[in-house]
Amino acid sequence: AQTVTQSQPEMSVQEAETVTLSCTYDTSESNYYLFWYKQPPSRQMILVIRQEAYKQQNATENRFSVNFQKAAKSFSLKISDSQLGDTAMYFCAFTPPFQKLVFGTGTRLLVSP
Amino acid sequence: NAGVTQTPKFRILKIGQSMTLQCTQDMNHNYMYWYRQDPGMGLKLIYYSVGAGITDKGEVPNGYNVSRSTTEDFPLRLELAAPSQTSVYFCASTPGTHRGVRNEQYFGPGTRLTVT
Q1: Residue B85, domain extent
Q2: How many domains is chain B built from?
């Protein structure tokens, strides 16, 4: 079975600092997509960043970047220069074939002044 | 584009009642999904559809039914509501292609359902 594990239920960081959220997954597939979604208190699911497994280069989107280690099946999210608006639940997700997303249980991130 | 819209935003049901959660997307996406999110948890797939007329079960389909008569609409039906169905329900869509390109999913704003 495909699984996604986020081992950090909660994380705290101060404004302007850097934080890294962990994610590991289990699959026998060689080609797949990985995503980080942000869910603020409004409950809306917002795509933060995506990574294609066949690309070795780590994806970046402004202050957000990933460390994708395919052999280790690891996909961590780094948030630089944290802002108060980054406070949210963050979900790691993986797409095996047939485009069914598998989600981790989430990491609650609190950014404090 | 409005994207993915869901109605209603909130609903309280009594045990045994029925209701339909509506989901519409205006992006001409082939693939549509229904998820539920229980408190403090991630999303679990209820049903999905790869195109009009085609639906399939996800991880937690019991107690739900779906239909996909058009590309735009993917309603989720609860026939006999139970307290275990208290959750937030999200509809999502993605373009998909015949080559199986994996695109990100676009989510609706969610429906908070309480069954008492």
Answers
A1: 4-115
A2: 1
Tally the domains of chain A. 1
Chain B hits for A106, Cβ within 8 Å:
40-42
In this structure, is the dihedral angle defined by the CA atoms of residues A88, B20, B65 and B116, taken in order, positive or negative?
Answer: positive
Q: Hey, is the C-beta of B110 within 8 angstroms of any chain A C-beta?
A: yes
- Residues B20 and B28: their CA atoms lie apart, in Å, by 22
Sheet strands (E) in A15-70: 19-21, 24-26, 33-39, 46-52, 60-61, 64-69
A56 touches B at CB < 8 Å: no
- CATH code for the domain in which residue B97 is found: 2.60.40.10
Q: Residue A105 corresponds to which tokens in the numbers above?
A: 């249980």
- CATH number of domain containing A8: 2.60.40.10
pLDDT tens by residue, A18-57: 999 999 999 888 888 899 999 998 888 999 999 988 888 9
Name the residue among B40, B42, B90 with its Cβ closest to that of A104: B42
B100 touches chain A (CB under 8 A): yes
- Min mean pLDDT across A39-53, A61-75, B74-88 is at A39-53
Contacts of A91 in chain B (CB under 8 A): 42-43
